[in-house]
Structure formats: C-alpha cells, structure tokens
C-alpha cells in the first residue's frame, strides 16, 4: 500500500481535518493514480485522468484550473488555464517530431529537422519579430556549428566546434575569422578538465584530488607577472567545503557544518580583518537564525513570515506575493504554472515576463527603464533600451565550452547604428560562478565574488558586510545563472532564489529526496549546503549528495553543539537539541534560469551534440519523515535535473502528478523517459481526445 499521509511520530496516523505543516496527504483512485495531494507548502491540488491514464485537469490551491487535450497518440496538443491556451503542433511525416508551439502569452516557437530528424533550426516569434538560430551536424551527430541571430553591426554570428578522437569537444572558434575562442589542452585520468586556453591567451589550470575528484586549486595566468585567479579549496572527507582561499589577496573563508552537513558557520579573514556569521536550522531544514539577519519566523504552513525586518506574504500555491522591508516593497504576480509574471515595486514601474510553451523565459520588459530583453534558449539575449537620444541595443551571444559558458560575444549599437563588437571571457570558480571577466587582450574588465549563500560581495574584501550590487558586464553571475538583479533575486530557471535569506521564493514541485528529512523542504536551497551543491535547473540540487546522522525513522533528533578551535568550528553530532521547530504559533493568514547542460537540454540537445539517454528513473519508495500512515510501495520517480516538464512521469515519487505537463520537444531530449515512452506518429493528422 502507498501511504495516504506522512507525519512525524512513531506509529501515528494523520488526524482528520486540516493537516499541520509536517503532514502530506495523498488520495488515489482504483488504478493507483494520485487524485488529491495536500501539502501545506503547495496547498491542496486535485487531479483528473482519462481512460488512458493521461492527466485531463488539475485544480490548484489558488483555484486555478488547467485542462489538457491530447491527440490519438497521447501527445499533448493543448493546455488551457487562466492565461489562455498553449498549443503544440506535431509533424505527421516524421517520427513524432514537434514542429511548433505557442504559449498563452503569445510566444511562438517553430522547429526544423534534417533527414535524420536532427533539429537544425529553432525560431522564436514574439509580437511579430522572429529570432532564429541554426545547428549544423557532423559525424556521429555532433554539433559542429551554431549560427546565432544576426545584428546590424556584425550580421549573423557563427561558431565552429572541433572534436577529438574520443568525441569530446576540444576547440570552439568563431567561424568567419577562424578566431580561437576556447581550447581544451589537458584532462586528467578521470576526465576532469586540467588545462584550458582562452582566445585571449589566458590559461586556466585546475588541480583535482585524485581520490575524490574534487577541485582543490584553480589558477589562471597570462602575460602578467601575477595570476588573475589563484583559488584554493579544502574539503572535508564527507564532501563539504571546509575552506576556500583567494591566494592573490590572502583572503580566507573557513566553514563549519552540523551533523546533517548544513552550513552553520562562516569565518572570514582578510589580513587583520575578521568577520563571522552563524546559522541555525529547525529539524525540517528551515533556517531559523542567521547572525547578520536575525531570527526567521514561519507560519503554520512552514512559509517564512518575517526575517531581516521584512514581512513576507504567500499565496495558497506557495508563491511569494508580497514583501515589505528595508530593501523596499514589492508585489509578485504568478502564472498558473507558478512562473513570475509581474514584479511590481512600490515606487517604480513594474517588470513583466513572458514564457514559451515549455515555461522558458522568453521576454522581460522593464517599464521603469523602457528596457526590453528577449531570450533565445540560453544562447542569445538582446537588450533594447529607449533613451532620450533613441534606441540602444546590446546583443549577447553565449559561447559554450566544456559543460559551461566560457565567453560572451557582445555587440553594442547606438541609435545611429554605430557600435562595437567585443568578446568577453568568463573565468569561474568551483561552483561555476563568474569570478573574473577579461577582454580580448587578457585584461581584467570586472571581478566578482559571492558569499556563502550567493549574495554579491566586494571581491577585494570578503569581510565587508555592506550591500554590494555590481552592475554586471556579462549576463552570467552566481553559479552560472542569469546575473540580472530583479529585486535581489536570482533567476534559476525553474524557480527564483533569494540569496540574502538563503531560500527560494516559490515552492519546489519536486521532493529532492523522500528518504531524507531535509529533502522534504520545498524552499531550502540545495539542502542548505550551498558551497558544495548547485541548482542548475531551479528544481533539484546538483553535485555529490551527502547526508548526516539520522535515526531509524529519518527524524533529526537534535541540533549540534558547535565548538571553535583555532578558528575552525567543529560539530558534535550527538549533541542535545539546541534548535527548535518552525514557529507555528499565531500563524499569519495566507493571502491570495544556463549553464551548458541547461541550454542544450532546453533544445533537446546535450553533450556538444551527442545524444544522451539517462537511465530509466528508478522507483522511489514513499517513506515518512517519521513513520508513514501505511506501508510504502514504489511508484515512478521524477527524472532528476530535468528542466522540461514533458520529462515528468504522470505520477512522480514524492511530488504527485506533474503540475503542468508539457510535450516532449524531441526524441533526442535529455530525458530518456520521454523518448522511450513516446508513441508512433500517425501518417494523417491525428484527432483530438479529452
């Protein structure tokens, strides 16, 4: 039997009526499909299926109804919600290829394929304007060329990829002038990148621990006498980062953790300067105290009410809708798919967002600055800003090397179409955050730094704790995500992250790990281990997952005792409890993102043009945070790190039915699940079924 509810305690059942914050309640039909999911973080959701097991409708906690239509082959062709209708059109001549989509916000996308059903063109149309990029293939289905949208200054930008005998990417060149942008020079025995050369002749060397495969030293050098980067990392045996140093400036940051490997202490030394921060958590992984913020106060649903003298109000779906404090007052409006639609400051014009059919951000309009930004699948961005002297445009072309962005080609145009083209190289740290930006001559254009939770800080003085908001020269920032600052939030693709508080501002539709107490928290950022894990998709941590000491039921039995010896904080796992639960008293009433893999996955292409098919999702067992109400049984698990909703099974372990299913974008999608479960394409136009 599957559990009908999950709760803390020993051999206890969920009471009838309203469930407290720690109880998740699920109901099933006779075929074992989830028809009701009640999670205090995301609210009550009800699902309806047809005889084929396809999701027909979902009613969420905000009373928003989403309805779905399918063709006779079970392919999604329409979804209708409060914003309107989103459509998918499928090719009847090729084997199930998607030819076009149009979202309810008016973003249309079309696709073209070659004789081998490889995607060769992606075109996106917004308000009558079309931007297109093309892909060129060589042997073994590898992408050998990428042709970006053009601009009045340079015309189309084209890149050429070169591969080694083992099929790995070894060079990226700008095709027109055959200019080297990036080159792989050396890998270690485990396949880790040891040396790479950039087009400005800077060389980055990486040293990896041969036993663990963890990065221990990163150094970038050029013609200058001193290195541009000289970063050293020390790791604990369990995989948490113990220390990071910038050897150029003699800056050192030491880190401490509790027995669940959650960050508890940061000690920064910059010459004679010394700065410390401490953090504490409840048993569910909620931050309850930060020394520079103060206490975190939560409501009965486990949602943040107050922190840093700032009030937070949430809708019934678990999305932040109002925030008021020293950093300003903002209102947030969300789509039916829980994507940010409008950001409204109290003292400025709003910023609006539009998405394509796969819920990728396609347009951003900042009405305060008269600035429009369009996005094309993580490869291209264009800023168009209206000023007193006319329209200024900035075209950004993201260049990918081995598994990450390594450069941006930037073309800036003034109203008289006089402009300049420049290549800016990105040098990252161990998390993929941009650390240094250099120009074509190898000179430093900008230095960046982020604290333990991703908040920007002064790169020349890590100990400074004042607000530091740099104006980025590139479109990448913390962990390689979009660097644009919208109310201090980081766009991670799937969700939005607040680095000041170390929490997401909308609930995760997935459970990170149903076998861990910490994995049930829908707002915690990467299991509160932000210096070892990242979140490329906005839905799931990426990195070496490590877990601490838990009892047999998985319940955290107490907080740690932290002692300090020689500047290092040590944690004793068997300490008595020192931290409490989330505050459930007087609850406030509820009120009604690209790294390389993400960019290619969004097009159904991964690994420099080579198709990859992840293993079939393993069954996950529904277990309790204490003890379940009934015996657990296995159901399909959510594919990890998927950014495409179509990859989700109809019923996901730990998160219920997929909230808004989307159609597979290609047979070469990064999700093996979607590819292996697709049905043949009809030779005639399919009919519609509901």
Shape: globular
Distance between the ends? 30 Å
Instruction: Report the biggest beta sheet as strand number plus sense, adding barrel if it closes.
Output: 28 strands, antiparallel
Radius of gyration: 25 Å
Q: Give the strand content.
A: 35-45%
Percent helix range: under 10%
Return the structural class. mainly beta
Number of strands: 52
User: For the residues shown, what is the average pLDDT?
Assistant: 81
Please work out how many helical segments DSSP would assign.
2
Q: Which stretches are low in confidence, meaning pLDDT under 50 for 5 or more residues running? A: 1-20, 550-687
Number of domains: 1
In short:
With 690 residues, this protein is mostly beta strands. It has one domain.
What does this structure look like?
The protein has one domain. The strands form six sheets. The chain has a 28-stranded antiparallel beta sheet that branches. A hairpin with a 3-residue loop joins strand 50 (651-652) and strand 51 (656-657). It has two helices and 52 strands. It has 690 residues and is an all-beta fold. Residues 1-20 and 550-687 have low confidence and may be disordered.
Which descriptors apply to this entry?
mainly beta; 28-stranded antiparallel β-sheet; disordered N terminus; 15-stranded antiparallel β-sheet; 690 residues
What's the structural blueprint in terms of helices and strands?
Blueprint: E1 5-7, E2 24-28, E3 34-39, E4 43-49, E5 55-59, E6 65-71, E7 76-81, E8 84-90, E9 98-102, E10 107-113, E11 119-126, E12 129-137, E13 143-147, E14 158-163, E15 169-174, E16 179-187, E17 193-198, E18 203-208, E19 215-221, E20 229-235, E21 241-246, E22 251-257, E23 263-270, E24 273-281, E25 287-290, E26 294-295, E27 297-298, E28 304-307, E29 310-314, E30 320-325, E31 328-334, E32 340-345, E33 351-355, E34 361-366, E35 371-376, E36 380-387, E37 390-400, E38 405-413, E39 419-428, E40 434-438, E41 444-447, E42 490-491, E43 496-498, E44 503-504, E45 561-565, E46 568-572, H1 596-601, E47 620-621, E48 627-628, E49 634-635, E50 651-652, E51 656-657, H2 672-676, E52 688-689
Antiparallel strand pairs: 1-2, 1-48, 2-3, 3-4, 4-5, 5-6, 6-7, 6-52, 7-8, 8-9, 9-10, 10-11, 11-12, 12-13, 13-14, 14-15, 15-16, 16-17, 17-18, 18-19, 19-20, 20-21, 21-22, 22-23, 23-24, 24-25, 25-26, 27-28, 28-29, 29-30, 30-31, 31-32, 32-33, 33-34, 34-35, 35-36, 36-37, 37-38, 38-39, 39-40, ...
């Amino acid at each position: 039997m599957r559990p009908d509810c999950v709760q803390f305690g020993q051999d206890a059942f969920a009471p009838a009526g309203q469930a407290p914050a720690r109880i998740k309640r699920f109901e099933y039909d006779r075929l074992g499909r989830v028809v009701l999911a009640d999670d205090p973080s995301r609210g009550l959701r009800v699902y309806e299926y047809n005889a084929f097991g396809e999701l027909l409708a979902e009613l969420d906690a905000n009373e928003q109804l989403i309805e779905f239509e399918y063709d006779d082959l079970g392919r999604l062709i329409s979804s209708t919600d409060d914003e309107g209708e989103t459509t998918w059109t499928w090719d009847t001549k090729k084997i199930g290829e998607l030819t076009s989509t149009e979202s309810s916000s008016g973003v249309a996308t079309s696709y073209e394929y070659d004789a081998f059903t490889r995607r060769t063109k992606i075109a996106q149309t917004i308000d009558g304007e079309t931007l297109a990029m093309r892909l060129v293939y060589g042997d073994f289905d590898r992408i050998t060329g990428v042709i970006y949208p053009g601009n009045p200054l340079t015309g189309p930008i084209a890149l050429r990829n070169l591969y080694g005998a083992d099929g790995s990417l070894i060079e990226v060149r700008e095709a027109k002038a055959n200019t080297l942008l990036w080159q792989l020079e050396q890998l270690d025995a485990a396949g880790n990148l040891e040396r790479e050369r950039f087009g400005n002749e800077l060389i980055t060397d990486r040293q990896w621990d041969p036993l663990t495969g963890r990065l221990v030293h990163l150094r970038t050098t050029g013609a200058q006498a001193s290195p541009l980067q000289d970063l050293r990392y020390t790791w604990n045996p369990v995989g948490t980062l113990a220390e990071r140093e910038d050897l150029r400036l003699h800056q050192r940051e030491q880190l401490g953790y509790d027995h669940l490997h959650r960050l508890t202490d940061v000690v920064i030394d910059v010459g004679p300067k010394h700065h410390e921060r401490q953090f504490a958590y409840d048993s569910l992984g909620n931050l309850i105290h930060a020394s520079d913020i103060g206490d975190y106060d939560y409501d009965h649903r486990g949602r943040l009410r107050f922190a840093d003298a700032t009030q937070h109000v949430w809708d019934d779906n678990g999305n932040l809708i109002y925030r008021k404090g020293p950093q300003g007052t903002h209102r947030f409006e969300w789509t039916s798919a829980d994507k940010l639609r409008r950001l409204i400051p109290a003292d400025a014009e709003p910023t609006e967002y539009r998405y394509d059919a796969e819920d990728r951000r396609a347009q951003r309009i900042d009405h305060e600055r008269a600035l429009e930004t369009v996005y094309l699948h993580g490869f291209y961005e264009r800023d168009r800003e209206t000023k007193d002297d006319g329209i200024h445009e900035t075209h950004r072309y993201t260049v990918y090397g081995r598994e990450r962005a390594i450069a941006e080609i930037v073309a800036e145009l003034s109203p008289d179409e006089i402009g300049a083209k420049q290549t800016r190289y990105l040098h990252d740290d161990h998390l993929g955050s941009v650390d240094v930006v250099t120009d074509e001559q190898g000179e430093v254009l900008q230095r960046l730094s982020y604290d333990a939770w991703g908040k920007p800080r002064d790169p020349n003085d890590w100990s400074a704790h004042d607000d530091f908001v740099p104006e980025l020269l590139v479109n990448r920032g913390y962990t390689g995500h979009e660097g644009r600052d919208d109310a201090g939030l980081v766009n991670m693709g799937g969700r939005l992250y607040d680095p000041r508080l170390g929490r997401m501002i909308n609930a995760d539709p997935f459970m990170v790990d149903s076998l861990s107490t910490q994995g049930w928290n829908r707002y915690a950022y990467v299991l509160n281990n932000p210096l070892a894990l990242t979140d490329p998709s906005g839905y799931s941590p990426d990195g070496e997952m490590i877990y601490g000491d838990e009892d047999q039921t998985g319940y955290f039995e107490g907080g740690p005792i932290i002692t300090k010896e020689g500047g290092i904080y040590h944690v004793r796992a068997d300490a008595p409890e020192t931290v409490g639960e989330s505050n459930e008293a007087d609850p406030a009433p509820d009120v009604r993102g690209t790294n390389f893999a993400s960019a290619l996955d969004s097009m159904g292409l991964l690994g420099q043009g080579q198709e990859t098919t992840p293993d079939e999702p393993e069954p996950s067992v529904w277990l309790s945070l204490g003890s379940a109400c009934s015996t657990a049984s296995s159901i399909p698990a959510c594919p990890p790190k998927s950014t495409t909703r179509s990859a989700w099974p109809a019923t996901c372990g730990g998160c219920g039915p997929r909230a808004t299913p989307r159609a597979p974008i290609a047979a070469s999608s990064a999700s093996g699940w979607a590819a292996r479960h697709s049905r043949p394409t009809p030779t005639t136009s399919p009919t519609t079924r509901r």
